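Throughout our pipeline, every protein is held as a single compact record rather than as scattered files. Such a record has a labelled line for the sequence and another for the backbone structure tokens. The remainder of this section carries one protein's record, kept here as part of the documentation:
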Amino acid sequence: MEGGSGQGLSNGLSRAARAVWAKHDRDSEGWLPLWRHMADSGAVAGLLWDGWLPAQVRRLVEQALPAGAEDARRLAVWAAMTHDIGKATPAFACQVDSLAETMRATGLGMPFYKEFPDRRLAPHGLAGMLLLREWLIERHGWAKPAALQLAIVAGGHHGVPPTHLDIQQVTRHPELLRSPECAQSWRDVQWELLDWCAEECGVQKRLPHWRSVKLPQQAQVLLTGLVIVADWIASNSDLFPYFPDAQKVGEHERVSAAWRALDLPKPWRAIPPSIEDIFSARFSLPSGAQPRPVQRRAVEIAQAMSRPGLLLIEAPMGEGKTEAALAVTEVFAARSEAGGCYVALPTMATGNAMFPRLLSWLGRVFEGREGRQAVHLAHSKAALNEQYVELVRAGRRAVRGVEIDGAPSEWRPRADRRAASTELIAHQWLRGRKKAMLAEFGVGTIDQLLFMGLKSRHLALRHLALAGKVVVIDEAHAYDTYMNAYLDRVLSWLGAYGVPVVVLSATLPARRRRELAEAYSGATTLAEIESASGYPLITAVERDRPPVIEAVPGSGRDIDVHLERLDDDLPTLTERLRRELADGGCALVIRNTVDRVLETADHLRGSFENVLVAHSRFLDLDRLNKDATLLRLFGPPGTAKQRPTAPYIVVASQVAEQSLDIDFDLLVSDLCPIDLLLQRMGRLHRHQRGEGQSERPERLRTARCLVTGADWAASPVEPVAGSRRVYGLYPLLRAAAVLEPYLSGTAPTGNVVRLPHDISPLVQRAYGPEPVGPEQWQDALARAREAHELQRSKQHQKAQDFQINPVGKPGSALIGWLDAGVGDADDTRKGRAQVRDTPESLEVLVVQRRADGALITVPWLSDGRGGLELPTESVPEPRLARIVAACGLRLPYQFSDPETLDRAIQELETQCIPAWQSEDSHWLAGELILVLDENCRTRLAGYDLHYSEADGLRVAHAE
């Protein structure tokens, strides 16, 4: 495909074939003939195959074809070359009068654009699929199913494979593909171009050998994703200039210049150190420190597997599961030839906390190596992460993105982010809602992984991105039935792709362990995984092989936590804290709702000087500052430089359960599901502070957890209403039931929960099928279970609505794969709602109006960002706009009611600042602005809102 000149490449084509056009720029009147775009796309696909696509992906296509690697490359290039053959049809070609007229002059007659109302029934992807199918059947004697499994790649290259109904509609309108009065001329040109592509790619002689191939659906998806990438690159007029300017540029010069300018990173080639050195080489271990048993065994078991598969690591908080997962990732990647990894976490906060750890690991992995690797922080607030922003600045290049995600008409505010560094970069082209996951390395929310199971436009790109990686799923216990249904479907596809997966959890129910293993392996007979005991526990799963299950010794650090009931009464809490903190110390009080956090803090401030709150109703910048304060005061020894000696109380919501390495002397917690309570206990005496905890106040050297948030005198226990709303009654009653022996002192250890020894037994009892709790609780538990199972069933059924199907039989074309889908999937409020069964919420950007009417950034922001005046007649300069964008606030549950939500949106839209809605205002366009008065108050949809730096957002019904 590398002729002397671009024009020379087409010398063998007829005048009519050379006249068919593919691209047109209305501003410059530049254009690109179809043969040129075909050649560009094929050349790019070949370069992507050779230098960018991980071997783990290539192998899936190679295994399906008789000549293996050679056939696979030919097929990929041919699929890219032919993907736009549907543009050689009247339905497409009539759109530009001047170019259509040139085609008419060669005998390719067609109606004028305005006289062709049915043309939209045959988008060029669908038209191309039908032409390819016909060509394979009539010219090469293929059966219809065999032809369709290859032609579907062209059909799906614009994001959604056609349905049977789409095909039927075009079949009833043959004039869309060929004008009746010159149908033979159209057919001759279409077949001429397809013959030319087959010859140029070396496919012509291979077609007889491929006729009996049954191409797996996984390969069909990946080829579609590759063709989309090749098409988007080849469609970039910065990289591949239009005619007539580029008409005399040689083929080799044209393609080589574009590839050099694009400069995509090469896939990762993992070279892990020996097991003796992998932890010291990759992580900041103290001198002489050895890997913990669970870390060592995880790596050894990963190395011993016949091929990389699924590895589940269950171990307590603080045992080094993350380091074990990254070490296993390197081992798996070396064996499977994965090109990168993606680490999925429950929330943006946990994603942000993981990002610097991933960067540190990558810095050591690539130390001394040449080249660059793309890194992506995958959540909607990524552009507000300072480390990520530094990578962005380092990675900007002169080449513009290819219409961002291939669709300029679909521009959306805050949808696309840049990224980059010196060795570690987030490549400029690998950005945007759809392309960013193609970066070799990523950290982000679980949503980005779950989107792989959602019927959504350009899903093949996400599959292509993840099929070439090792996937790490952290906090696997943290997802509800709805999300787990998506996760199971995603795992079934990852297993079919052969993607290595590492799953981490401190508190995984045995039934869920089995479900994860069966989803990945496709087996339904893994009962031994559910019945396995021991903790820490490592489970290795490969397709078509029995699982390996091994209990591993712990690291040896045990904590005895003394449990007590505490009445849900604020004066009682205050008096108990006054007693416990008489000699100083740090207490953490975790409430299950923000309203209880604020109510508790207000009361405690009447008796204590130092009371800090942490919850989800803070501006993004304030939340970051709050996290930094918590780490500065309560982080690990050596990090917490200002740990208080005077009494200090933090009242927090669930934000304190995970992501932050914070350590308290005393814990008070609302009753919550058992796995979450154990996570909360992980914040108690988390680190050793002196021999025998001698650096803690004497009274607090024994770890104590006071459980409140329930009426303990009731039978059964009655959790407070807010907790029931958040978690449901059944998990709370099961938690109370398994805790009852400890709370009453009748357990073999009295009221002591031994960590980590008791973690797995408590979790398995709470989530297992066996009855728990006193006899007089059983009727109430049975009723609660019935309601709980009904809710789970509804969630599971609801999750099926937009899920992709399981992997189909080899040779079955992806017709209708995304039928009745959701359109685009992204990490926005609407996008997250597609894979999380949560009430719709509303996010606003918060600014303040001074008494003189001027709009300003909220005044308390640090680093010169507070109190800055904002223009309302023009787009704010980027620095100002970014500050406003960093003041995002998610409104609470009161605004999730559909009527209230609609009313709030209508009221906020009346405050819209037109100048900020310009497409040039990338940070602010499309956002809703909440304007506070000079006292930081406002009214919205019948509620009074008051915001403060100390306490966040308070909401009350308007008088």
